[in-house]
Amino acid sequence: MALSRDQMAIRVARELQDGYYVNLGIGIPTLVANFIPDGMDVMLQSENGLLGMGTFPSEANVDADMINAGKQTVTAVSGSSIFSSAESFAMIRGGHVDLTVLGAFEVDVSGNIASWMIPNKLIKGMGGAMDLVAGADNIIVTMTHASKGGDSKLLEVCSLPLTGKGCIKKVLTDLAWLEIENGAFVLKERAPGVSIEEIQAKTQGRLIVPDHVPEMVF
Amino acid sequence: MAGFDKVVTTYEDAMSGLQDGMTVLAGGFGLCGIPENLIAEIKRLQTKNLTIVSNNCGVDGFGLGILLEDKQVSKMVSSYVGENALFEKQLLNGELDVELTPQGTLAEKMRAGGAGIPAFYTATGVGTPVAEGKDTRFFNGREYLLEESITGDFAIVKGWKADRYGNVIYRHTAQNFNPLAATAGKITVVEVEELVEVGELDPAHIHTPGIYVDRVIVGTFEKRIENRTTSE
């Protein structure tokens, strides 16, 4: 079975470490915040200028001046800090964020990522995604393995305009955990009950399948 | 205290000198911390052919979105413009030009512009459409883009509290691009919720020192919420 959105978030959360500063993108990455292990201290960075993002507020505590990068009303945890957009991206570009999790349309074997533009269709803009992928060393991309029409999103060469070049090393799809090494996807783990053949069929870029590929356990 | 007194009492005075074809830098992220009354004054003035530098372009009917209604904007420099149907229509019709700029690069363009630095190198955007036509250079084996800074004829800024000298503090995440825009305008106009006595703000806690600020006006704000999300 393909992973649910929550299972994807749970798998990503296993990469968290105590004391990490983490930037979570919109969509599945946001769900990771729900699965931070008990007893682990993780501080969430929101690129509009908040380090130490908390939960959504109660109705009584909604504050128009307190939002996250998704423009949702949020709270700030004890020990948080708030700063300008330039300071926020100094942290991001300067490599101070320990883990960045974001979605994508496509990833390729060279570690290129396309996540912001579909020519003639979608012209909303890149927001902070280009800065995030250029600045972070430790990035996890979360996305479905293939489109609804069955087209692979793990490609030999990205077909869409890039968000960043050569910056992705880890990809979690609904079918597998893969790492990009020496110009190929290496299959590290597969979703429970998903066959290696299915992953091979849905991976267009070069795929290396080790002798043993463990199933994820939830 | 005439010399340092930046306070004006009408929005007409606040935006006095704005002319067709000027570049206006605006603070705000989404609808959070936007100078909503200064934007409304630009609409009232019907100034045309403006270049607006702002992370977003408001929404249909509020914030910078209202300047699109009478086609006052000829060019937007933004990182994300996805909340605005009229924007998309004018862009597709060729009535509006947009320079999509990565969010961190946009912030740094204003910061550097206000700090007298004309351009800077960043890894952001290397190998992407953002790099087209820009110089690149390698430092320590990594490729970087040369990005030019931005300054504006006007900067319009939303603060929380200011004193008459133009020292400003921002409230929570309504800070965002505001202190950066404030440094990079030839004329910087700050509208605030509250005017306090000189000396009342802790000097060490001031976000925007008055040296950057030309005019201060006290306004009332709707503070519309774009994406109200609660735990209940």
Automatic annotation (TrEMBL), chain A:
Keywords: Transferase. The keyword Transferase applies. It comes from the Bacteria. InterPro entries: 3-oxoacid_CoA-transf_B, CoA_trans_fam_I, CoA_transf_AS, NagB/RpiA_transferase-like. PROSITE patterns: COA_TRANSF_2. The keyword Transferase applies. It holds the Pfam family CoA_trans. Belongs to the 3-oxoacid CoA-transferase subunit B family. PANTHER family: KETOACID-COENZYME A TRANSFERASE (PTHR13707), SUCCINYL-COA:3-KETOACID COENZYME A TRANSFERASE SUBUNIT B-RELATED (PTHR13707:SF57). This is 3-oxoacid CoA-transferase subunit B. It comes from Psychromonas arctica.
TrEMBL record, chain B:
Keywords: Transferase. One of its GO terms (molecular function) is transferase activity. The keyword RNA-binding does not apply. Transmembrane segments: none annotated. PROSITE patterns: COA_TRANSF_1 (PS01273). The keyword Transferase applies. Belongs to the 3-oxoacid CoA-transferase subunit A family. PANTHER family: ACETATE COA-TRANSFERASE SUBUNIT ALPHA (PTHR13707:SF60), KETOACID-COENZYME A TRANSFERASE (PTHR13707). NCBIfam families: pcaI_scoA_fam. This is CoA transferase subunit A. It comes from Psychromonas arctica.
